[in-house]
Specification:
Order of helices and strands: EHEEHEEHEHEHEHEH
InterPro entries: DTB_synth_BioD, P-loop_NTPase
Number of domains: 1
Helix content: 25-40%
CATH superfamily: P-loop containing nucleotide triphosphate hydrolases
Largest sheet: 7 strands, parallel
GO biological process, one term: biotin biosynthetic process
CATH class: Alpha Beta
GO molecular function: ATP binding; dethiobiotin synthase activity; magnesium ion binding
Protein name: LANO_0H25048g1_1
Number of strands: 9
Number of helices: 7
Distance between the termini: 9 Å
Structural class: alpha/beta
Pfam families: AAA_26
Strand content: 15-25%
Length: about 220
């Protein structure tokens, strides 16, 4: 079986989606792609963040450039209003031609699963379905959520939306980011969420080693 494509989405902004993506890239010796990047007027971009993280680790992934790179720190739909030369179409997003199917590919979405992407009001869910339809490789979804207060509503709504969209079989599970909160993890599991890892904030190399140890191998996840 070909290695999977793992689509990383978040329950909210600033939940640690890019850092979690970098951890997955390291743990699974995966490559990385951010299809649509926004906010470049005030940020270096997530691809560069992943590159810098991996530069101090053992695995340097192949980093595929974004298909679209927009300046404003907004959802792609709104960011296009400031750069009218762009008109994003779902059909524009093709998995990198030179992405080696032997190695997993971590694909980081722009924001959460309901973030508007195109002027036709396609959302991230539509982008995931587009990838599923365009490849024979297994496509799985990882939901990154905060560990603390407020995460229950956001996480359960995200999972409910994915279920309603018929993507429940593609959901690999959730990664909770931040100080460990056993109560929230337990409650989410009572509602059917699969918590595949709980990753604390990292401020040192030892913290990163600990975070990587929390993430299961792909084989343990059935991939």
């Amino acid at each position: 079986m070909s290695s999977p494509i793992v689509f990383v989405t978040g329950t909210d902004t600033d939940v640690g989606k890019t850092f979690t993506s970098a951890l997955l890239v390291q743990k699974w010796s995966a490559n990385y792609w951010k299809p649509a990047q926004t906010g470049l007027e005030s940020d270096q971009g997530d691809t560069e963040t992943v590159r810098q993280f991996c530069a101090s680790q053992q695995h340097m992934p192949q980093l595929f450039p974004p298909r679209y790179a927009l300046q404003k720190p907004l959802c792609p739909l709104e960011a296009m209003e400031f750069e009218p030369e762009y008109d994003i179409q779902l059909s524009d997003f093709r998995l990198p031609d030179d992405a080696d199917a032997v190695e997993p590919l971590v694909v980081e979405g722009a924001g959460g699963i309901y973030v508007p992407i195109t002027k036709k009001l396609h959302i991230t869910t539509d982008l995931v379905n587009h990838f599923i339809a365009s490849t024979d490789r297994p496509v799985k979804i990882v939901v990154v959520a905060r560990s603390g207060l407020g995460t229950l509503n956001h996480t359960l709504l995200t999972l409910e939306h994915l279920n309603r969209a018929g993507l429940q079989q593609h959901v690999l599970g959730c990664i909770l980011n931040g100080p460990k909160n056993p109560g929230n993890a337990s409650t989410l599991e009572k509602y059917g969420a699969k918590i595949i890892a709980q990753v604390d904030h990292c401020s040192s190399e030892n913290d990163i080693v600990e975070a990587l140890s929390e993430i299961p191998e792909l084989a343990a996840l059935g991939l």
